[in-house]
Amino acid sequence: MDFAVPSELSALRASFATFLDREVRPLQERWSTEDGTEPALREMVDEVRRLSAAAGFYAPYLPEAVGGQDLSVLGTTLLVEDAAATGMRLAMTAVAPPNPAGPSTLLLKLPEHLWSEYLIPVANAERTMCFALTEPEAGSDAQAIRTRAVRDGDSWVINGHKHYITNGADADFALVFALTDPEKRAAGGITAFVVPRDQYRVGKTQYNISDSHPAELFFDDARVPADHVVGTEGMGFLEAMAFLNAGRAYIGAQSLGLAEFALNSAVAHVQARTAFGKPLAKFQGVSFPLARSKADIEAIRWLVYHLAWRVDTEGDPLAIMGDASIVKYSATEHAYEVADRAVQAMGGMGLMREGPVERILRHLRMLRVVEGASEVQLLVIARTLGL
Ligand SMILES: Cc1cc2nc3c(=O)[nH]c(=O)nc-3n(C[C@H](O)[C@H](O)[C@H](O)COP(=O)(O)OP(=O)(O)OC[C@H]3O[C@@H](n4cnc5c(N)ncnc54)[C@H](O)[C@@H]3O)c2cc1C
Fold this sequence. Notes:
Layout (H helix, E strand, L loop, with lengths): L6 H29 L2 H18 L17 H13 L33 H5 L5 E4 L15 E5 L2 E11 L7 E7 L10 E7 L4 E5 L9 E11 L3 E2 L5 H11 L1 H25 L1 E2 L2 E2 L4 H31 L6 H25 L1 H5 L6 H10 L6 H11 L3
Parallel strand pairs: 1-4
Antiparallel strand pairs: 2-3, 3-7, 4-5, 5-8, 6-7, 9-10
Helix pairs in contact: 1-2, 1-3, 3-6, 3-7, 6-7, 6-8, 7-8, 8-10, 8-11
The structure holds flavin-adenine dinucleotide.
C-alpha cells in the first residue's frame, strides 16, 4: 500500500492554491465587503468559472479533446477538497466536479456531432446545465418518476414536472430523465435526454437551508430530436446511478474540505479568545470536542482518497457501490458533526452570518440529504451485508 499523494498531484494542488489566492480571493473579499447581494455573487461565480476554465481547473476530469485535462478522480478529489477548505464560497465554484450541476461526464455519451453544442461549451464554462431526475413524487425512490417521453417520428416529446433542480433557473439546458417504457422502469425503461432551455419552463425558486437554491422545471410537450438521447435508450436510470456512484468521492471531498476549514476556524478562535482568565483552548471541555473532530477528519480523508483511488484503478461503478455509499454517508454525517462542534466552540460568533462557520454548517446539513440521503446510503451498505 502506498498512501503518498503522487508528486505531480502535489504540484497541481500548489498551483491551484496560487490560483485561488490570486484570482478568487480578491473577488470573494470584494463581494463580502462591498456588495453581498445574490446577483453580484452570480456575476462573480461566472467570472470564477471562466477564469478557472482558462487556467485548466474547472472540469479537469474531462478528456483533453473536449477542454479537460484527463485528470484522475484522485486528482480532482484533491482539488475539490482544497477549494472547500479555503472556506470561500466562490472557491467551490472554481472546480466543478461532475455532480448534478457540473459538466456531467454523461454528456460524453451524446453523439459526437452534438458535443460542440452541449459538452464543449459546458466544459469551457461558456454554458451551464442541470441534472433533472427528482420529482415531487420521486426522490429517494428515483425510479418512481412520472415524466414521460414518447417517440413521435424523428423526435421525442416529453411531459412532466421536476423539482429541487440545482442550477435549474440558470442552466442553458437540462439533462432530463424520463420514462420511455413504464413497464420496465429502472430495468430498461428510463432514458436520459438533453433538453434545450427553450423547450421547458422554469417554475419557482426553492429557497432552502443552504445557499444553493434549486428550481422547479415543467415540461409541456417539450420536443427534442431523436439524437438528443444520452447513452442508450432505456438505460438512463442505470447510467444516472453509475454516474452518481462515481461522483461520491467528490461529495466526500467537499465535506472533508469544509470540515477542515470549520475545525481550523474553531482552533484559531479558541486560542485567541479568553474566558475565566485563560484562553478557551485551555479548557478540556473545549479542546476535546475539537480533538474528536480532528480524528473524524482523518477518518473521512482516508475513506475519500481510498474511494477515489478505487474508481481510478477499477473503473467499475457497480463494484465500488458499497464503498461509495460508505463515503457519502460517513463523510457528510461526520463533517456535519465537525461543523456543529466548531459552531459550539465559537459560541455566538459560530452562529453569526458574519462569522466563518455558520454557512459551512448549513451547507453540510444539505449534503446529508441530496444525491441520496444518508438512509438511502445505509440501505446500500446493508445490502452489502446481505441484509
Ligand atoms: C438543495 C437541493 C438540491 C438538489 N439538487 C438536485 C438536482 O440537481 N437534481 C436532482 O435530480 N435532484 C436534486 N435534489 C433532490 C435530492 O436528491 C432529493 O431531495 C433527495 O434524493 C431526497 O429525496 P426527497 O427529498 O424526495 O425525500 P424522500 O425520498 O421523501 O425522503 C424523505 C426521508 O425519508 C428517508 N427515506 C426514504 N426512503 C427510505 C427508506 N427506504 N428507508 C429509510 N429511509 C428512507 C430519506 O432518507 C429521507 O430522510 C436536490 C435537493 C435539494 C434539497
